[in-house]
Automatic annotation (TrEMBL):
<protein>
    <submittedName>
        <fullName>Serine hydrolase domain-containing protein</fullName>
        <ecNumber>3.1.1.103</ecNumber>
    </submittedName>
</protein>
<dbReference type="InterPro" id="IPR050789">
    <property type="entry name" value="Diverse_Enzym_Activities"/>
</dbReference>
<dbReference type="Pfam" id="PF00144">
    <property type="entry name" value="Beta-lactamase"/>
</dbReference>
<dbReference type="InterPro" id="IPR012338">
    <property type="entry name" value="Beta-lactam/transpept-like"/>
</dbReference>
<keyword id="KW-0378">Hydrolase</keyword>
<dbReference type="GO" id="GO:0016787">
    <property type="term" value="F:hydrolase activity"/>
</dbReference>
<feature type="signal peptide">
    <location>
        <begin position="1"/>
        <end position="24"/>
    </location>
</feature>
<dbReference type="InterPro" id="IPR001466">
    <property type="entry name" value="Beta-lactam-related"/>
</dbReference>
<keyword id="KW-0732">Signal</keyword>
<feature type="domain" description="Beta-lactamase-related">
    <location>
        <begin position="42"/>
        <end position="411"/>
    </location>
</feature>
Length: 422
């Protein structure tokens, strides 16, 4: 799979039980299914659970609109021994980003914005930004004016110049952390704080994973006149039947929320997560984060994935035009950005998705044009139009180190031989 930039590692270095049987337009099966062809996939995932490196894992494979494989293994909570279940709710962190991208592209189809529009058309608070150049003798950042505002295309492809607070030794990232940007109490406070921090580079000159999708969420709110969650509920979740996806978990569902873990560097086993990056979803958030705030289930995200694989439609409900989905999964990086991006050879970036331009160079069995992203707690998915396939995985472990097996790669290694098996 793609060399997805790992948010958690850089920062801190389900199918419904009552779902109907699998149908071509309903990506979710009613119960877990195993197939001998997928033994490699199951064995590799189960081994990580048995070794204490994952509390539990769900994998789901759909091809041609039909569920080929669905496996649940391990625990939702290691302390209580509660098992992982079909309706377990997961914090999906940055796997929120594709959902926000779809929301914004709905407004694109309505003519409310264009890819070459400056972001200041919708976020005037971000006019007259500065750009980091160096650190002066006094230890302060030396800056220069931004040559122009970033465009919407650059915002959606992480070329706008913003950062995320991830790099420990970078002064711009440090300013993100020190300012408490990601804990801003209101959208207005978020924008005010962000405007005071220099960009990492001039707009359009480099790929830099960033708060860009949080800004996209604010643009959705301003263009629609609705809170991001309300817009998503009305335009995405309700039409697709995503009944357990949102920015918080109501009291009656909190017993289904998976516990969150992180890796103990000493023995690479999971321990309960505390403090930094532990997303509190027990109540409505002050700011609904388009970049990382959603919770979801395998069933819900499978429906979202199938909608995209179908070219923007599921069960007779069309969310996007097929050409809009194509636009999202095309590479939008400039040659300069492509040469310096950290995603790996053969990989580009579309509108809120990583996209495989050359599978051979990327060292992956996925088809050309496959697109993907994942979340800080280890969730992953990819959509492979060339093989009419999508794969989805759910775990809840922050900060899995680069030395650990990449779950997307492990699953790709198990999926493609299986789908080609006689």
């Amino acid at each position: 799979m793609t060399r997805r930039f790992k948010l958690a590692a850089a920062a801190i270095a389900a199918i419904l039980a009552t779902a109907p049987a699998c149908q071509a337009q309903n990506a979710a099966p009613a119960a877990a299914t195993q197939d001998a062809a997928f033994q490699q996939l199951d064995s590799s995932m189960h081994a990580l659970v048995d070794q204490g490196r994952l509390p539990g894992v769900i994998t789901y494979v759909s091809k041609g609109g039909k569920a080929l494989h669905y496996d649940i293994y391990g625990k939702s909570d290691l302390t209580t021994g509660a098992p992982l279940k079909a309706d377990t709710i997961f914090r999906i962190y940055s796997q929120t980003k594709p959902v926000t991208g779809v929301a914004l592209m709905m407004l694109y189809e309505e003519g409310k914005w264009g890819l070459d529009d400056p972001i200041t058309k919708f976020l005037p608070e971000l006019a007259n930004l500065t750009v980091f150049k160096s650190v002066g003798p006094d230890g302060k950042m030396v800056t220069e004016p931004a040559k122009r505002p970033a465009t919407m295309r650059e915002l959606m492809s992480h070329q706008a110049g913003f950062a995320y607070g991830l790099q420990v030794d970078n002064p711009v990232d440090k300013a993100y952390r020190d300012s408490g940007l990601l804990g801003s109490p209101t959208p207005e406070a978020f924008l005010k704080t962000l405007a005071a921090i220099p960009l990492m580079g001039q707009p359009g000159e480099q790929w830099k994973y960033s708060v860009a999708v949080d800004l996209q969420g604010l643009i959705v709110e301003r263009l629609s006149g609705k809170k991001l969650g309300a817009f998503m509920q009305e335009r995405i979740f309700s039409p697709l039947g995503m009944v357990d996806t949102g920015f918080w978990v109501p009291a009656e569902k909190q017993g289904r929320l998976a516990s969150l873990y992180l890796i103990n560097p000493a023995d690479k086993k999971v321990v309960p997560a505390q403090g930094f990056m532990v997303l509190d979803v027990s109540k409505p958030p002050a700011v609904e984060s388009g970049g990382g705030g959603l919770v979801s289930t395998v069933a819900d995200y499978a429906r979202f994935s199938q909608m995209l694989l179908n070219g923007g439609e599921l069960g007779g409900k069309r969310l996007l035009k097929a050409q809009t989905v194509e636009l999202m999964r095309e590479n939008h990086l400039t040659a300069a950005s492509l040469a310096k991006q950290p995603l790996g050879p053969g990989v580009g970036f579309g509108l809120d998705f990583a996209t495989v331009m050359d599978p051979a160079k990327a060292g992956t069995p996925v088809g050309k044009g496959s697109y993907s992203w994942g979340g800080a707690a280890g969730t992953w998915f990819w959509i492979d139009p060339a093989n009419d396939l999508f794969v989805l995985g759910m775990v809840q472990v922050l900060g899995r180190p680069d030395s650990d097996p990449r779950l997307d790669r492990l699953s790709a290694a198990g999926v493609y031989p299986a789908i080609k098996a006689p």
